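SAMPLE LOG
Freezer: B-3
Tube label: C17
Construct: single chain, 171 aa
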Amino acid sequence: CVGCPDGSWCAGGASQPRPCSRGGYCLGNASEPTPCPAGTYQGEESATSCTNCTVFSFCSAGSSAPTPCAAGTVGRGEGLEDASQCDTCPPGFWCSAGVAIACGASTYSAAVNATNEGNCTACPPNSRSPSGSTSIGDCTCDTNFYDKGSTMAGKVECVECPVGSECNRSG
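STRUCTURE (predicted):
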């Protein structure tokens, strides 16, 4: 098509240009839209290029919008081409729409591929942990409490320090 402008295409020599469709782009004298390559997308009509796929998402060839990584997975970079490039959600986090969200303070999670905050377990009473903790061992007793269960792996039992004892720091 002679004289078909950038951002449009002319089918079979038609003199009336059509706007380039979403999911593709058109350069001058295009006879049809060119699909955006995998890892890119185009959400606007009449485009002359494609945009890199955003973080937390992937874009298959011809995408008109990024697709968020599935629950339990995280997108760590731009330009992902398919769902297989989304990473496993790591322990200490839960993942939704491709975003890794740390378990809150005073909780922990050893699970991988966690899909919601319900996978984060509260530390035992009278203890706390930093956000993103991965095991009960990250839970430490509050000030004026000590861990009675420290001889058993995987158990934290914080009890009040006996009257008259030195127990003025956490741990």
